[in-house]
Amino acid sequence: MHSYRWMPESGTGLEHLVVRRDGDTITAQGVVIGSEGGANFGARYAIECDGEWRVRHAVIEVAGGARLALFADGAGHWRGQDGATTAALDGCIDIDLTASCFTNTLPIRRLGAALTERQPIDVAWVWIPELRVEKARQAYTRLDDARVRFESVGTGFQADLTVDGDGFVLDYPGLFRRTG
């Protein structure tokens, strides 16, 4: 079991994460506290991955609000809590929570050695606190042992993330920094 903490650069908020590996299952449980559009929010999430860091199940709950559950087969097919296929997410292997620094680790770990070249991917992008989900195009490229370039392809945004030896973000310039 490992725990991590990040603070937003704004100074308002916190993310706390606990990651456990049990055989071929990786479970990440976290809490995020922050503000969006002048409103404060708190949310908790649980993301289960297989041994290759492919998302298989995710639950996100906003305090006093909505709950979202998604299930994936690890090959780019998703279902909602009701079991219905979520075709809009076809091709997505990873999930990215807008309020979480941790979810950048998922593609970094999953892609591993392939990151020596730019890797465009589609992710299930979850807006917190709204819990709106959409497909988003991103790309990751390893710059050196301690830095990975993240790109939000549709928006042109990019950031050079500093990561530890396990692919967990230490510094996300302008957004997050790890504190523990």
Structure description:
The protein is mostly beta strands. It has one domain. Helices cover 4% and strands 57% of the residues. The protein has one helix at 105-111, and strands spanning 2-8, 14-22, 25-36, 39-50, 55-62, 67-72, 78-80, 94-97, 119-127, 132-144, 147-152, 157-163, 169-172, 176-178. A 14-stranded mixed sheet has the order 7-6-5-4-3-2-1-14-13-12-11-10-9-8, with helices on one face. The chain is globular, with a radius of gyration of 15 Å. The mean pLDDT is 96.
What's a quick, concise take on this entry?
Helix content is 4%, strand content 57%.
Outline the fold blueprint.
Elements: E1 2-8, E2 14-22, E3 25-36, E4 39-50, E5 55-62, E6 67-72, E7 78-80, E8 94-97, H1 105-111, E9 119-127, E10 132-144, E11 147-152, E12 157-163, E13 169-172, E14 176-178
Parallel strand pairs: 8-9
Antiparallel strand pairs: 1-2, 1-14, 2-3, 3-4, 4-5, 5-6, 6-7, 9-10, 10-11, 11-12, 12-13, 13-14
Summary tags:
180 residues, mainly beta, 14-stranded mixed β-sheet, 14 strands, 4% helix, 57% strand, globular
Beta content comes to over 45%
Number of strands: 14
Q: Determine the N-to-C terminus distance.
A: 14 Å
The DSSP helix count reads 1
Determine the structural class based on helices, strands and strand pairing. mainly beta
The strand order across the widest sheet is 7-6-5-4-3-2-1-14-13-12-11-10-9-8
- Give the tally of structural domains: 1
Oligomer: single chain
Regions with little confidence, pLDDT below 50 for 5+ residues: none
Largest sheet: number of strands, sense, barrel closure: 14 strands, mixed
Q: What is the succession of H and E elements? A: EEEEEEEEHEEEEEE
> Helix coverage percent of residues?
under 10%
| Shape type | globular
